[in-house]
Design goal:
The chain has about 375 residues and is mainly alpha-helical. It is about 75% helix and about 0% strand. The protein contains 18 helices and no strands. Helix 1 runs antiparallel to helix 4 and helix 5 runs antiparallel to helix 7. The relative contact order is 0.16.
Length: about 375
């Protein structure tokens, strides 16, 4: 792998994870934004901006991370399957269990004080929809949240990626032997958001595509002759803006609404990946020359694990107490995620310096 490609992977990994703060840091009344979600409040500069970013322009990141993961996994698949799985268990599942437990512990601690318990309850981020105190939910409910439905809901990505790694021999076989059946099939899973048992269908296409690019020895550094950056940017921006307007105007209980928003959402993701990957080279070179950026990018995984549930709780607390400030929701959306990112880097820096063994466990050995 060339140095420029390695830098590109590092840049997009950090940026994709950092931007999660702005995907998860919105303060709309709707606490969960699906691709087909509408907005059940008036259109203002705040609600329009938050939906456009959180459920439009920034949604290309996770598919891109799956693509990068598939590419890198295939690039180093000369190691035995057992060695690969052991390595991924250490770098994915152990951090998953630790960060999931940490999210539960933080939530439990906040629930012990009436005021902070109110913040947690109003944030409403429990994946099972039960925002009662954990003392009422019981150990069985806690175990379910620890292993399968973590309050740190971003961790679904780690679990999905580990399952892809477990299934890698089968994925590789299908990518090599029947790519023109497998790739369209997995693309259908992605585009229609079909839920599959055990394996997550949302990222399977992009992970498989990354594997296919390696096995076919297709360069991802040179812009394809058929590609037009201008058209990709117009599609990416235009479709995202159109979808945002439609989310405010269409009826939320209509199947046609869901279909239209879903199609536009997936089109924006694909155009966004292409536009960002082939259109950001100069930006990447500039950032990779900045010492502060290279330093911060070493904490990518730590940011990923720590920012939720910290971010939604802090966002809810700020919006609850800043109502006297004009445009407080928009200001909170701009500054609270940035503050959380800086806080995560700071805590990561302290942990890496003074408790390196704990830091290594939390990050799966990354960031040293």
């Amino acid at each position: 792998m060339t140095r420029s490609l390695s830098q590109k992977f590092r840049f997009f990994t950090f940026v994709s994870i950092a931007l999660l703060a702005y995907v998860h840091g919105y303060n709309l009344r709707e606490t969960y934004l699906a691709p087909y979600s509408t907005v059940n409040e008036p259109m203002t500069i705040t609600t329009f901006t938050e939906y456009l970013l959180a459920n439009g322009l920034l949604r290309f990141r996770i598919p891109l991370l799956f693509l990068i993961s598939g590419y890198l996994y295939a690039l180093y698949d000369h190691r035995t399957y057992v060695v690969q799985v052991k390595s991924r268990f250490r770098s994915l599942i152990i951090p998953f269990l630790l960060w999931s437990a940490g999210g539960l512990l933080l939530t439990y601690i906040l629930q012990q004080n009436p005021y902070t318990a109110s913040v947690v309850y109003q944030a409403g981020i429990d994946q099972l929809g039960d925002n009662r105190p954990y003392t009422e939910i019981g150990w069985r409910g806690m175990l379910m949240r620890w292993l399968f439905r973590p309050i740190s809901y971003q961790l679904w990505f780690i679990l999905a990626l580990f399952i892809y790694n477990l299934a890698y021999p089968a994925i590789r076989w299908m990518v090599i032997k029947i790519p023109y059946i497998w790739l369209p099939l997995t693309f259908l899973f992605f585009f229609s958001t079909i839920m599959l048992p055990i394996i997550d269908g949302r990222g399977l296409f992009f992970f498989s595509l990354g594997v296919w690019l390696v096995k076919k020895n297709i360069s991802i550094e040179e812009e394809p002759k058929w590609f037009s950056l201008g058209i990709a940017l117009i599609l990416f921006l235009g479709v995202s803006v159109i979808k945002t307007f439609m989310a405010f105007e269409l009826r939320p209980d209509n199947n046609d609404t869901w279909t239209a928003l879903l199609v536009l959402h997936q089109l924006a993701i694909m155009a966004g990946i292409m536009a960002m990957w082939f259109g950001a080279d100069r930006v990447i070179r500039w950032f990779m020359r900045q010492p502060w950026f290279n330093h911060a990018s070493g904490f990518s995984f730590f940011i990923f694990g720590l920012h939720v549930p910290l971010l939604p709780y802090l966002m809810k607390w700020v919006t609850m107490n800043a109502g006297f400030i004009p445009n407080h929701r928009l200001l909170a959306y701009i500054f609270v995620p940035f503050f959380v990112l800086a806080l995560c880097v700071g805590i990561g820096e302290i942990s890496r310096r003074f408790t390196p063994k704990i830091y290594a466990l939390l990050t799966g050995g990354r960031g040293f």
